[in-house]
Specification:
Elements lengths: L1 E12 L5 E13 L4 E5 L6 H8 L7 E6 L2 E2 L6 H5 L2 E4 L15 H10 L5 H14 L4 H4 L9 H13 L5 E5 L7 H16 L3 E6 L2 H7 L2 E6 L2 E7 H6 L4 H9 L30 E2 L2 E5 L2 E3 L8 H6 L1
Parallel strand pairs: 3-8, 3-9, 6-7, 7-8
Antiparallel strand pairs: 1-2, 1-4, 4-5, 9-10, 10-13, 11-12, 12-13
Bound molecules: adenosine-5'-triphosphate (ATP).
Length: about 300
Amino acid sequence: MLRLDGVSKIYRVGAFGGRELRAVSGVSFDVNPGEVVSLIGESGSGKSTLGRMVLRLTPASEGTITFDGTDVSAIRSRKAYYRQVQGVFQDPFSCYNPVFKADRVFAMIKQEYFPEMGRAEWRDRVESSLDGVRLDPGQVLGKYPHQLSGGQLQRMLIARALMLDIRLLVADEIISMLDASTRIDVLNLLGDLRARGLGILFVTHDLSLGNYVSDRTVVLRRGRIAEMGPTDRVFGNPLHPYTRTLLDSVPRLHTKWADEEPAAGQTPCPFHDRAPDTPVRSDLAEAEKEHYVACAGSGACPAAKETA
Ligand SMILES: Nc1ncnc2c1ncn2[C@@H]1O[C@H](COP(=O)(O)OP(=O)(O)OP(=O)(O)O)[C@@H](O)[C@H]1O
């Protein structure tokens, strides 16, 4: 359904945009119907930039993003694309205008996509979407944002996306601002959506969330894929030193860890030290079935120099 092929993003930064910042480099993966794919990495690793490119909020500098085989940048009608692909972001509060009732977000969808629909039919549609995210219409309709919890507001945004019968949801840190009790609700909701055949790109810096919710995991480091594969294999048998560092750092909440390139000879390189018959796909070695890993030193490890 969704396929990224060699996608890069270069931002122009600095005074007068005179410097280039490569936020994403040569990223390839796909998201299939009924599948949750987590994009995991520390702050600044390029996760949101990838989500924004998928949502056409910023163009890719290199590579292609296709949806059902069509290059999304060539889809002339944004409206047609957004009928199938929607995004929900971290801060639900910022998506509502405190002056208006929260259900105005639904009215905006009606205005844009269903201007002809009668009131009764529209009301049914709103209520069934709310039902789909386990919200009681009586408790949320007609209320102002400050009268609703963060979890309710977030679920209303997901309901809004579902009103369009979307096929792919980009969920960018949607759990981060929710309290523990609503987190699990929203996570279970994602599970329901997956069961209904939706593809979900789940952007998070939180490994435990990624592990809980996703079928496949893509670990991003400095804009490149360090490792990707079925979640149980990436978490159960992490091959890249960066993934291991991320996993090791989970219990040490108060200890600062450094994401440094491994010093020469310090760490075996899972890419360059692979068995001779290991299949290679661009810069990733397929260490086990569908479990891919990159060079430990972003191509500059000692093993890479020996092979060169
Ligand atoms: N519009 C922009 N212009 C210039 N640089 C940007 C822009 N957006 C992001 N960046 C830079 O691109 C890099 C990747 O940012 P991005 O927001 O994608 O990372 P992230 O992994 O989502 O981080 P976080 O978890 O903190 O949101 C960072 O160095 C960031 O400063």
